[in-house]
Amino acid sequence: AEIRLNDKFGHTPLQGQQVWDWAEALAQHSEVEGALTVTYLTEPHRACAKQLADWMREDCGFDRVEIDAVGNVVGVYEGLTADAPRLLTGSHYDTVRNGGKYDGRLGILVPMAVVKALKASGTRLPFALEVVGFSEEEGQRYKATFLGSSALTGSFDAGWLDQQDAQGTPMREAMRRAGLCVEDIPTLRRDGSRYLGFVEVHIEQGPVLNGLDLPLGVVSSINGSVRFMGEAIGQACHAGTTPMGQRQDAAAAVAELILALEKRAAQVPDVVGTVGLLEVPQGSINVVPGRCRFSLDIRATTNAARDACVADIREHIARISEARGVQIVLEETMRASAAPSHPQWQAQWEAAVSALGLPVHRMPSGAGHDAMMLHTVMPQAMLFVRGLNAGISHNPLESITADDADLAVQAFHHLLTAVASP
Ligand code: HGY
Ligand code: MN
Ligand code: MN
Ligand code: MN
């Protein structure tokens, strides 16, 4: 059946194609040696920020567009009155290394297409629409996950400024080179009472919607997560002459820990655990590893399940340490609470999906999102969009269709219609 939008806000057909085209064009600014990699304040990152700001100003007709003190791209489409409340929306434009074109970006481009249609039809809402392209969510160049959205919620960690990247460049210096004014960061904090809430559109980054053959899903809760950087310290020694029973092999200790994590996480349906970074610093093929560095990423739908897994892993660490004579130290680098969707905003997304004639599928988010930060200062809820290739993400195969993007635009229009005329 022809699914058409409530044309009160003048939804023009093929806005999904506009979103798709923008994502393709943005990806052109994002290639580093052929891989789509946009890490904080690197040249591709600055190019993407400028491109988003230019589109907001020239293509969409936002009333105000700025790049703020941490590199967020902020566009405001004013409401009917200057003192109107605001609806906040958006997502991140940075990517993981060798990432995809839609993780984060879809949640910026969909509301941009909506504002473009509102402007074209001369429509003003009884609230302002503030669309933010968050500058840093993935924490790739610096271990500063959710940096962009943290700045808006007053939880920017000043300690991040002195963190150095792999080349030894402190974040403070990277910001100075990008022309950002560190002193202004505290002014970015939003007063939650001025906002109706935060809504975020994001690709699902998983196989569920594909499995159900559904284009859209409504997020019920975002899993809580915690991340660590760890190091095992044993004893480097000769690979040829040291008997197996007399080694303090740091890499073997971490290998045992990885398998213990995999087994423990698999025991509980809603817990996942991953070691994504693993290295033997100054390792050699003929030296028993004396040191081994690794990361831990543990998530669950509840903080309690997440923390129970962390406690078990700490017990494994003590056991492995003792048995192998290898010291293992952990440093927590990120902790984000599970963020249940606000019932009213979740209901708004559900009504919007129903209005399109689609079944409503509620689902938890295994991935972390900027909405977890906004959750601390205002009501939030998310809409998921089906990904192709079984929803693969954090991978160049990440992809969506223009039709599904168009349904997301229509759902967004419906949500605005409902919020504007309760
Ligand atoms: O890791 C995540 O969940 C997200 O991609 N930052
Ligand atoms: Mn991501
Ligand atoms: Mn994301
Ligand atoms: Mn599990």
From TrEMBL:
User: What are the record keywords, sorted?
Assistant: Hydrolase, Lyase, Manganese, Metal-binding, Purine metabolism
Class of this enzyme: lyase
Cofactor(s) required, per the database record: Mn(2+)
What's an example of a GO molecular-function annotation for this chain?
Answer: 2-oxo-4-hydroxy-4-carboxy-5-ureidoimidazoline decarboxylase activity
- The segment(s) forming the Peptidase M20 dimerisation domain are 224-320
- EC id: 4.1.1.97
Keyword Ribonucleoprotein present in the record's keywords: the answer is: no
Spans through the membrane: none
Endpoints of the signal sequence: none
User: What protein family does this chain belong to?
Assistant: Belongs to the peptidase M20 family.
The record describes its quaternary structure and partners as:
Homodimer.
Please state what the protein is called: 2-oxo-4-hydroxy-4-carboxy-5-ureidoimidazoline decarboxylase
Shown portion of the whole protein? Answer: 172 to 593 of 595
